[in-house]
Amino acid sequence: MRAKAAVLRAMGATRPYSASGPLEIADVELDAPGSGEVLIRIVAAGLCHSDLSVINGTRPRPMPMAIGHEAAGVVLKLGPDVGDLAVGDHVVMVFVPSCGHCGCCAEGRPALCEPGAVANRNGTLLSGATRLRDARGSIHHHLGCSAFATHAVVSRHSLIRIDPALPLAEAALFGCAVLTGVGAVVNTAQVRAGQTVAIVGLGGVGLAAVLGALAAGASQVIAVDIAEDKLAMASDFGASSVVNARDGDAVERVRHLTSGGVDVGFEFAGSIAALESAYRMTRRGGLTVTAGLPPPDASLAVNVVNLVAEERTLKGSYIGTSVPMRDIPQFISLYRAGRLPVDRLMSGTIGLEEINEGFDRLDRGSVVRLAVLLE
Q1: Are residues 246 and 304 in the same domain?
Q2: Where are the beta strands (DSSP E) in 182-302?
Q3: How far is it, in rounded angstroms, from Cα 156 to Cα 149?
Q4: How many helices, marked H, and strands, marked E, lie in the chain?
Q5: What is the pLDDT of residue 33?
Q6: What is the extent of the structural domain holding 136?
Q7: In this structure, are strands 132-134 and 65-66 parallel, antiparallel, or unpaired?
Q8: CATH number at residue 129
Q9: Which pLDDT tens digit goes with each residue over 259-278?
Q10: Helical (H) or strand (E) element with 71
Q11: Angle between helices 250-257 and 272-281 (to 10 degrees)
C-alpha cells in the first residue's frame, strides 16, 4: 500500500532544518505484513532527541531511513501467525522489539533483547526484513517503528495493546518519554518512599522522571538544568528544589540541599559533563543512573578509589529497564488516576509537513514534547 513518511536521506544537515530540509515527506510503498508483523495506521508520534541524534549524525544509522519511534495508532491488518491482536486494536509502539527467547529476554530483561538490538542497528524489523521502499529502492526502519508516517509495518513484538479510551496523542508519550524516564526511577533505581533524588537534564525524559520520582514518594526531588523554562516546569510539577547549572556550582548546591548528596542521581542530558555532575551529587553509598545517550565515542573517567571506598553504584538504564507489556498499562493506569500527569509534557502538535521546523524547535530547547498528528 501507499503511505507518506518522513525519510532521512543523509545525516548531518546544516541548521536550521526548516531551511536545509533533512526530512523529506515522501510517498513510500509498504509491503504487506509478513509472519509475526502488523500493519498500523499511525495517529500520533512524538519528536524525541533520539530522532534528533540520527538527523544530526551523533547516533549513526544506515541511510536512507524513515525515522520516528514514539507513537501510537490503530491495527489495520495482521500478518500470518499474529493471533493475540485484532483489527481496530489501539497500540503503543516500543522501540526495542523483544524476541522472548534470547538470554536477556529469558531473564526478564526485554529492553536488552539481543536480536532486537541487531535489528535496530541494521535498520530492519525483528525478522531482518525491510517492508519500506520507494522508486529509489529500500528504506530502512528506525528502531523497528518508522513512526513519522501515516502507516507502518512493524513486528508484533514492537506493540503494546492499550485501552482505546485513552487518546492516542497522549498514549504516544508512553512508548519512549514515560517508559524511559519513569522506568529509570521505578525499575532501574527502584526509588523508595523517603529517598532523595537529583535529576539532571529536563527534556521529555527527565521531566517524566520528575513525575515518576514524585509518584514513587521521594522526599526531595531536585531538578537541574540550564533552561529556566524547564526548571519552572519541574517546579510546577512539584520538584522540591530547582538548580540552574549555569549559576554557580550546581553540585555543591545539591549537596548542601541534601546534607551531603542525594540517594539517587539521574542523568538524562546525554552529556558527559552532566553525568559527572550527577555522580558527584550522589552521596556516599548512593546510586547514579544514566539514561542519556551521548555520541558513541564518549567516555567517562571515574575515580575508582572513590567508587570502591564510598561503595557507590553507577548504572545504565535503557528504556527504563522496563518490561513494556507490564509497565505501559501500569503507567497508563497511574496517569488516568491522576498520579502521573504526563500530558503536561506536551508542548503542542504539528502536522507531518512541519516536521523539520519541529526539530528546529526541539534542537533549540523551546519545546519538551511535540506530537505529529497524522490524521
Answers
A1: yes
A2: 196-200, 220-225, 241-244, 262-267, 282-290
A3: 18
A4: 13, 18
A5: 98
A6: 2-175+341-373
A7: unpaired
A8: 3.90.180.10
A9: 999 999 999 999 999 999 99
A10: strand 70-78
A11: 30
Name residue 82's amino acid: V
Measuring CA to CA, how many Å separate 114 from each of 106, 118, 126, 322, 358?
11, 6, 10, 15, 33
Pairing mode of beta strands 346-350, 2-8: unpaired
What is the amino acid identity at position 174? F
Q: What is the mean pLDDT of the chain?
A: 97
The yes-or-no verdict on residue 296 having pLDDT over 90 is no
Grid cell in block for residue 254: 545539591
308 is written with which cell numbers?
570502591
Closest CA to 96 of 74, 118, 75: 118
Per residue in 22-40, pLDDT (tens digit) is 999 999 999 999 999 999 9
Tell whether 107 and 16 lie within a shared domain: yes
Claim to verify: residue 139 and residue 195 sit in the same structural domain: no
Q: What is the number of other CB atoms lying within 10 angstroms of the CB of residue 350?
A: 17
Domain total in the chain: 2
Specify the pTM.
0.96
Task: Read off the CATH number of the domain in which 271 is found.
Answer: 3.40.50.720
On whether residue 222 sits in a domain, the answer given is yes
